[in-house]
Structure formats: structure tokens, C-alpha cells
From TrEMBL:
InterPro entries, per database record: HTH_MarR-typ, MarR/SlyA-like, WH-like_DNA-bd_sf, WH_DNA-bd_sf
Cross-referenced Pfam families: MarR_2
Protein name: DNA-binding MarR family transcriptional regulator
GO molecular function term, any single one: DNA binding
SUPFAM superfamilies: Winged helix' DNA-binding domain
Ranges in a coiled coil: none
Annotated SMART domains: HTH_MARR
Length: 153
């Protein structure tokens, strides 16, 4: 059984590899990391208002506008108006724009699927329970970092 230090190192290497993959994928798509994350959010959610996108990415409204401009110019998203409140800008993935993204992340998905397939169904349930619980924990930790940076702590 691995020691606590060995476990910590294994986990750090895992997180670094995931982060490195995100950076490489963003670069392959011609995007910055924040743009890649925003595009992932839009892929998962379908569409978000510019305010929601700003809150979820931690960007100011001005920076979010510039991010949307860049994604729109690259053909990844389009702006529409909210049917209920025409003052709101809704950002949605452009039709078929995510096919290129799928090609970029396909190899990682394939490799990870092969690894997960090597686990029993019970172990897979544990892995997905971890993913389900860890993602919000990382988002909260990211928000804590943003607050501390913003507040000068």
C-alpha cells in the first residue's frame, strides 16, 4: 500500500496530467485555457447568458465580452437574445462547431475509457462517485482562490 506521501505525489501527477491535457487541447483548438473552459461549459449546459458565463468563469463582464467575441470570431459560439428578456445576451454553441473539439479530445476519452473498462462495475461506480463529488469541490476551491486573489489575501 502506498504511503500518504506517495499517494499525494500520484494524485498531483494525475492532476498535472489533466491540466496539461486541457492546455494542449486548448492550444490545438486555437484557444486560451479560459476560452476552452467556457466552450466546455457551453457544451455541457447548451447555452448561458453572458452574466452566467462571467460568473462561472470568474471573469469580469468586460473580459467575458471579449472572450465571447473571440469564440464568436472563431466560429465556436453565437449570440442570441433571451426570449423572456431581450436585454439579456445568450451565448450558445454554434451548430457543428464542437465537432472539431470532439476530434481533439477523442484520444483522451478513448484512453481513459480503456482504463475505466478495466475496473469492475463496483469500482467504476466508486470512480464516478468520486468524479461527481470532486468536481464541485474543485470548483469551490477555485472560487476560494479567486476570492482570495480579488480580496488581496
Amino acid at each position: 500500500m502506498a504511503s500518504p506521501i506517495e499517494r499525494r505525489l500520484v494524485f498531483r501527477r494525475y492532476l498535472d496530467a489533466v491540466g496539461l491535457h486541457g492546455l494542449a487541447a486548448a492550444a490545438a483548438a486555437g484557444l486560451h485555457a479560459t476560452e476552452w473552459y467556457a466552450l466546455s461549459l457551453l457544451d455541457l449546459e447548451g447555452s448561458l447568458t453572458s452574466g452566467e458565463l462571467s460568473a462561472r468563469t470568474g471573469l469580469t463582464t468586460g473580459a467575458t465580452t471579449r472572450l465571447i467575441d473571440r469564440l464568436e470570431r472563431a466560429g465556436y459560439v453565437r449570440r442570441t437574445t433571451d426570449a423572456a428578456d431581450r436585454r439579456k445576451v445568450v451565448v450558445e454553441p454554434a451548430p457543428d462547431a464542437l465537432a472539431g473539439v470532439e476530434a481533439i479530445v477523442g484520444p483522451a476519452r478513448r484512453h481513459i475509457a480503456e482504463i475505466i473498462a478495466g475496473y469492475t462495475p463496483e469500482q467504476q461506480e466508486l470512480l464516478f462517485d468520486y468524479f461527481t463529488r470532486a468536481a464541485p469541490a474543485y470548483r469551490e476551491a477555485s472560487e476560494e482562490i479567486r476570492r482570495a486573489t480579488r480580496d488581496g489575501k
